[in-house]
Amino acid sequence: MLKIAIQKSGRLYEDSIKLFKECGIELNNGNKQLKSVAYNFPVEVYFFRDDDIPQYVYDGVADIGIVGENVILEKGKDIEIIYRLGFGRCRLSIAVPKSMTYNTVNDLEGLKIATSYYSLVQKFLAEKNVNAEIHEISGSVEIAPGIGLADASCDLVSSGSKLFTNGLKEVEVGLRSEAVLCTNKNLSTENKGILEKLLL
Ligand code: PRP
Ligand code: ZN
């Protein structure tokens, strides 16, 4: 059995399930169980929080996973990205209040940036030679500037509606991301065989 980790609920869930369907893989009743075995293909699907997927694939709890590339890069786990899936497209962007004058990346100097992507923001700031304070929070990042918790936010942007409703404007794109298929680096020969069939 090849063990596959996918998101339990959220933006990647539906498309991940759809992908199995399109491959002709029939799963029994979905994410309520947190684990599902296919009827007609040697795979078992585990439903996890997306943030945990790189760790589980690295540890071998799952052999492969479907997750946003942004999560893999943030976690820095030594796993392999073997296929870009073309859904879940988004960008990790820095946003500031609409009223703020913003010309260059240097305008971030000395600001406090709220994000759940500490490592990626740190890397971005270092590359741009900007000193700013990173305030790590795990969610609702876009409200941080409006409630005085931070001066700016750095979060995923897809349609941009979250930014809009929070009175923010996107000023820097840190990285572009999409859902990818990742694998543990030490798959057994048997599982490599199943993976090849799956990719086909
Ligand atoms: C993500 C992200 C943004 C929002 C951006 O959150 O954290 O808040 O989507 O999307 P938009 O540009 O289309 O508005 P999500 O809704 O996935 O929930 P989460 O914060 O629980 O991950
Ligand atoms: Zn998440």
List the topology elements:
Blueprint: E1 2-7, H1 13-22, E2 35-37, E3 43-48, H2 53-59, E4 64-68, H3 69-75, E5 80-84, E6 90-97, E7 112-115, H4 118-128, E8 133-136, E9 152-157, H5 161-165, E10 168-177, E11 179-183, H6 189-199
Parallel strand pairs: 1-3, 1-4, 7-8, 7-9
Antiparallel strand pairs: 2-3, 4-11, 5-11, 6-9, 6-10
The structure holds 1-O-pyrophosphono-5-O-phosphono-alpha-D-ribofuranose and zinc ion (ZN).
1-O-pyrophosphono-5-O-phosphono-alpha-D-ribofuranose (PRP) binds next to β9 and α5.
Number of helices: 6
Unreliable segments of 5+ consecutive residues: none
- Could you give the count of β-strands? 11
How far apart, in Å, are the first and last alpha carbons? 17 Å
- Helix coverage percent: 25-40%
The whole-angstrom Rg is 19 Å
SS content category: alpha/beta
Q: How would you state the average pLDDT, rounded? A: 96
Which strand order do you get reading across the main beta sheet? 2-3-1-4-11-5
Beta content comes to 25-35%
| Shape call | elongated
The biggest sheet amounts to: 6 strands, mixed
The bound ligands are: 1-O-pyrophosphono-5-O-phosphono-alpha-D-ribofuranose, zinc ion
What is the ordering of alpha helices and beta strands? EHEEHEHEEEHEEHEEH
